[in-house]
């Protein structure tokens, strides 16, 4: 079977069948028709398997029993058109790599074990702070992990394994990432792992970047940059959001709605999709990261959008329907 993403219309059909069969309203004739649809083409079977996998991932992440999801589906059984619209958006997100199924690597299990055993870690939607043995302060953003020991040597080693950290140093320290090391010079700074780069934002003091291939650059306070194992981007002004998250705030200063929602999605289980019709709306203000439903409600109150939840764990942001 091909591992390409199914056609958006196939995904939409698969999701409609999934919602109907799990709703408790499916008749024996509906089941027969679903089996006929499934057998028509390999792409139908691929689409069905993907929708099933999405639902299983959501249930595993949230601890929901399938019966709870079934009850939610029954409450939404009269919203078939809404389900179809959502899954078309979901298909677009899949096509853009938003769910990342194709990104699974053979070393994923080893990486997860390192994250699970890390002394400093957070779950999805959690922001935590620690006081380190040398008097420094460490904050971790959602779904993040840092490995580190109370070393007796002159420099305390920390390793960012996943996500984002904010460090206020209390003594000599080194932060290692897959792309290289950071050597703060009496400072307060943020480090975030992205798929191909590491982002560092310096709020106080200075930070020296040493890439895996030996390139070096000192970043002063008020500047941020991205680097890989072989290159360092030119520094630019620090974004407010790079420090605001440790106070539980998502800061938006004239950014696209789609970009804000992509960030908000990191703090909630399930999948958050935005219609292209409203993706480019500009957003200003501060939104709570500890209550993402409230953040969505705030956006809905000030923008011409509506937020719907057609299926468990799936949220759709689309243009507001005109008033009748």
UniProtKB/TrEMBL annotation:
It comes from Alloalcanivorax profundimaris. Residues 13-53 form the FecR N-terminal domain. The chain crosses the membrane at residues 85-104. Keywords: Membrane, Transmembrane, Transmembrane helix. This is Transmembrane sensor. Signal peptide: none annotated. Residues 120-208 form the FecR protein domain. Pfam families: DUF4880, FecR.
């Amino acid at each position: 079977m091909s591992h390409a993403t199914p056609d958006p219309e196939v995904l939409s059909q698969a999701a409609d069948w999934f919602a109907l069969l799990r709703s408790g309203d499916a008749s024996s004739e509906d089941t027969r028709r679903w089996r006929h649809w499934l057998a028509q083409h390999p792409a139908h079977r691929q689409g069905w398997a993907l929708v099933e996998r999405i639902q299983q991932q959501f249930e595993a992440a949230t601890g929901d029993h399938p019966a709870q999801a079934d009850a939610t589906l029954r409450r939404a059984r009269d919203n078939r058109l809404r389900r179809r619209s959502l899954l078309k958006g979901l298909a677009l997100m899949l096509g853009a790599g938003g769910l990342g199924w194709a990104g699974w690597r053979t070393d994923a299990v080893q990486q997860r074990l390192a994250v699970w055993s890390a002394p400093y870690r957070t779950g999805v939607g959690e922001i935590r702070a620690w006081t380190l043995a040398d008097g420094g302060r460490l904050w971790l953003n959602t779904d993040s992990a840092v490995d580190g020991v109370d070393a007796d040597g002159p420099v305390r080693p920390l390793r960012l394994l996943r996500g984002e950290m904010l460090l206020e140093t209390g003594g000599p320290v080194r932060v290692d990432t897959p792309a290289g090391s950071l050597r703060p010079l009496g400072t307060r700074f943020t480090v975030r792992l992205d798929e191909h780069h590491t982002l560092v934002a310096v709020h106080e003091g200075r930070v020296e970047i040493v890439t895996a291939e030996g390139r070096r650059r000192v970043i002063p306070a008020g500047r941020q940059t991205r680097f890989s194992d072989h290159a360092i981007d030119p520094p630019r002004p620090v974004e407010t959001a790079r420090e605001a998250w440790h106070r539980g705030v998502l800061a938006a200063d004239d950014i696209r709605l789609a970009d804000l929602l992509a960030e908000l999605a990191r703090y909630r289980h399930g999948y958050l999709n935005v219609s292209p019709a409203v993706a480019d709306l500009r957003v200003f203000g501060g939104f709570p990261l500890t209550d993402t439903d409230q953040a969505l409600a705030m956006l809905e109150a000030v923008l011409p959008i509506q937020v719907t939840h057609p299926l468990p764990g799936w949220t759709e942001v689309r243009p507001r329907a005109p008033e009748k």
